[in-house]
Amino acid sequence: xxxxxxxxxxxxxxxxxxxxxxxxxxxxxxxxxxxxxxxxxxxxxxxxxxxxxxxxxxxxxxxxxxxxxxxxxxxxxxxxxxxxxxxxxxxxxxxxxxxxxxxxxxxxxxxxxxxxxxxxxxxxxxxxxxxxxxxxxxxxxxxxxxxxxxxxxxxxx
Length: 157
Fold this sequence. Notes:
Blueprint: E1 13-15, E2 21-23, E3 32-37, H1 44-55, H2 57-62, E4 65-71, H3 75-85, E5 91-93, H4 98-102, E6 106-111, E7 114-119, E8 122-126, E9 132-136, H5 144-154
Parallel strand pairs: 3-4, 4-5
Antiparallel strand pairs: 1-2, 3-8, 6-7, 8-9
């Protein structure tokens, strides 16, 4: 089931690359939140997307917004990916895929003529109240971080 703007964002707690738990509820009422879901650490498109968000972390911070990347990779893979690519934003591990399912990004798609389940590149902008302001499914990674930043800038303070 796909989420829509105006719906409450599903709550979760996931470990980051340092195996510290990040609880979405800790940011509610305090910060705007961007969650971007991507398929795999180290693949060319996912690397570009994650480094773009990381490069603009300060710009998002000026909008009182935190960014989290989420994939099904484990914490160790995230740590290696961050170190190798210089990514400063937290990457969260959804190893069992439960959060991917809650957000509707775990979908069947056709790859090389075969149907496979996988993460559909998607981004969610959540306001301070914990409501989804924007649910962006099947996004193009090119220029995506700046597009998301513009949407965050348009949110009420």
